[in-house]
Automatic annotation (TrEMBL):
Keywords: DNA-binding, Transcription, Transcription regulation. The keyword Transcription applies. One of its GO terms (molecular function) is DNA binding. It holds the Pfam family Peripla_BP_3. PROSITE patterns: HTH_CROC1, HTH_LACI_1, HTH_LACI_2. The keyword Transcription applies. It comes from the Bacteria. Residues 3-51 form the HTH cro/C1-type domain. This is LacI family DNA-binding transcriptional regulator. InterPro entries: Cro/C1-type_HTH, HTH_LacI, LacI/GalR-like_sensor, Lambda_DNA-bd_dom_sf, Peripla_BP_I. Residues 3-57 form the HTH lacI-type domain.
Amino acid sequence: MSYTMRDVAKKAGVSVATVSRIMNGKGEASPETIAKVKKVIEQLNYKPNLLAKRLSERKSNLIALLVPTLNNPFFPELVREIEKEANKNGYQIYLCNSDDQREKVEYYLDSMVNHYVSGAIINSLHVDENDLSILEERGIRTITIDRANFDHSYSAITVNHKAGAQSAVNHLIQDNHCRDIVFISGPRDEKSAIDRLLGYKMALEQVEFPIQTKVVYGDFETESGYQLIQKLLMDGEKFDGIFSSNDAMAIGAIRACYEFGIQIPEQVKIVGYDNINMTSYLHPRLSTVDQCKEEIGALAIKELINLFNNRSEKPNHYELKPKLIIRESSR
Ligand code: RIB
């Protein structure tokens, strides 16, 4: 059985960053902790120096791409854009699907090291600055996108979701005269969902007449959009607009409306978020907010190549502007 740095950390009861520091002889740990970690390294027969040596000598043309799920079409579409750009520049993608589980994230973070990847594009709520530091220490340049928590000192690409949500809600209120709006939010702990909720609230604060609102929370999957709207309709709730925090849940919401004989857009207008490819083939075609997948792909690869070529290059943070796309569902 081969052990990882995480196994050592767990057994010694310290963080992975502490193990990494001790292995690199960088101090900043008490003599007791150093002794404890060294003992565990010995017990597990962990070979940190060998691994580190091999890693500093070998690098591949692989770029790891960690995604939270492949169930939602947004992610395969994003993967495709990133892969296209990587291939254009002579790199291949090592796809790591975490299924939104910390256990799988850990498995893949270790595996990135073992596969000698040159860079990593991280899209996960379950990765923190500690994890990024370990990758960088192993010579793997990193950039976070989308779901990642951006409170770190490495490169990042974000999208201004507050502005995106605000434009969608303004469109429902100003262009479509909706006065009773349901917001299907994404998960409560997910940064991009929280920002869209803030954007929704900002749009409501700007109107001078009363708007009835209701916020319901889904999990970004189609089924949750379906269940939430079905429940509201079964409870006899009335509304004339729906803003959904992503397209997948909007598709579920459309299905629920259809089953209750509600006409879209005649009785209820609906706007989604993401601009996944199938939204322009739905009936009715879904209005949505485009979150620049092509741009994210191109920028992520460009930034990594820049970091590969200039090892001393400082990380950058980019913010992209999403764009409202108006289609039949809100005309
Ligand atoms: O549809 C999936 C959603 O989760 C996207 O909007 C993306 O931004 C993500 O975090």
